[in-house]
Design goal:
Chain lengths: 262, 385
Amino acid sequence: MSRRRDWPLYVVMAAAILFMLAPLIVVVGASVTTSSFLEFPPRGFSLQWFQAVLEQDVWTTTLVASLELAAVSMAISALVGIPCSVALARGSFRGRAAITAFVLSPLMVPSIVLAISLLVIYSRTGVGLPFWRLALAHGVLTAPYLIRTLTAALEQVDPALEEAARNLGASPAGAWLRVVLPTVRPALIAALFFAFIMSFDELVVALFLSGPRLTTLPMQIYGDVQYNLSPAIAAVSTLLIVLTVAGVLLIERVLGVRRLIR
Amino acid sequence: MRPELELRNLVRRYGDETVVDGVDLTVGKGELVSLLGPSGCGKTTTLRMIAGFAKPSGGQIVVRGEDVSALPVHRRGVGLVFQSYALFPHLSAAGNVAFGLKRRRTPRGEIAGRVREALAKVQMDGLGDRMPAQLSGGQQQRVALARVLVLEPSLILLDEPFSNLDALLRETMRSELRTIQQRLGFTALFVTHDQEEAMALSDRVAVMERGRLVQVDRPEVVYHRPATRFVAEFIGRANLFAGTVEAAAGGELAVRAAALRWQAAGTAARGAAVDVMVRPDCVALAPVAAGEEGGDPGPNAARGEIVQTEYLGSGCLVTLRTDGGERLLAEIRTAADGAAELVPGRRVLARWAARDVRVLDAGRAGAEGGAEAGAAAAAALPGAS
């Protein structure tokens, strides 16, 4: 193929990239404005809104709350999801297809429906702690993503690897822990990362379940947009973008995940 | 001496299907035995039962006098080299080799030395740091072997270990495997569907057909004295014809198969349906001079015309159409006198010795002989149409 004839491809690619980057450009642009309204293009350039955000306790408090929530719900998701994936990927038992459909069902249920049903369940059973209510809900919400990613990866693993480990003297559990799971490490890390991010920016379920004593970062942003519409929100969003990119780079460097998204 | 491995009436069923059907096999210490058969004959299932990945439906697997049928995989102490190598992708070559030692709680200080030693045995010195993805197919194969050798098992199973290598490397690796096996003296059971590989490598070849062992013997015996028609056809090329015994006396048989007359050693009743077989490399060709045409060429001989010649390197495979209409294969040495004259269109006299003829019980009723004979003769010769 000659380069000359490829130009329509490059145009499409450039358009796609622009389309994906546009929201980021708008948000970052709006965060440096000198005016006191959320607008794009920005008027002038200043970092005053970043300063305002860092000086207000409410942003750091909610950020920490959201990070804690994301970490705990990721752990719950992993605790449920990893054994479940292992069973679905390798087990051959009755009703496997039905169970697969069942564990993946939260993917298909609108989150508002899930939020309402969990609200009803919690008010009946009286689980009072808002943090744990939300962490459990987010675990339910994110586990299917983890299970789907991990099951797909585990199904790709040559069954001979597990058998080789067994033949060399590993117990059944040892073969899984030392060979099969390390083989899917990139997929596992990617899945955990997605679970974390999903919980971190989840709004609908959080609004329904958190109650007055717990505010997450997305809830805070949402509230602010409703009442203030100040460029501080754009500054917060820009900081989140920076944090996320830094997180991805860190995982890439430290854990050597080259194919984070497969 | 106690045999290293004994399979006693080993059976494996999947539902209604019997995949392994009463296999009896004894493998002596230091012996290399090939389990040879077409795909689906049950050879891999047999191997997997010995390794412990499949449960026998019946029978016993005895390793050094001990029935291991009930032992879990990781307690069997039987090494297995996989067709896909099954190297652990997240571990280096050395890490792969060390894996089994670590599971056996080998002292740390000892591991490095033994890993180095094992890699040296397969000529992979200095490549221990490489990851499997950075190794060529042949190198991966060597690591897979070293990973098993380092544990010093007295029995090693190999499941089509060379099938993913190109032809040249396959030959190198198989002669290397043979050298290592003889030097270290371990016992090996080698599963393959490649008859040439089985013949080249093994002390004995066990030919398997539809879940049963049909012949277990030295390669040359399996080749020249096949026990059944299946073995004759599966191992190498064969001129195989269905015929009828015309006379039997004193251990000698006279057989008529289509338009050819055969003499061979054997015992069978007069009128019995048999198959006769002679290997192409036992058939000699001579050009027919103008005055020699006409008349009966005698038993174990046929006149005909060369239809095709295939150059094989050291040999040449010649296809004849005999005057009776049969197709006959002869493999002659390229360097032999007069070989250059054997070109398509040339009339030749083919001869073979009575001692090279193998008479096989056709295992069919005499009445059906006629119909089946034609089909059998056609099937016996590749290229017959």
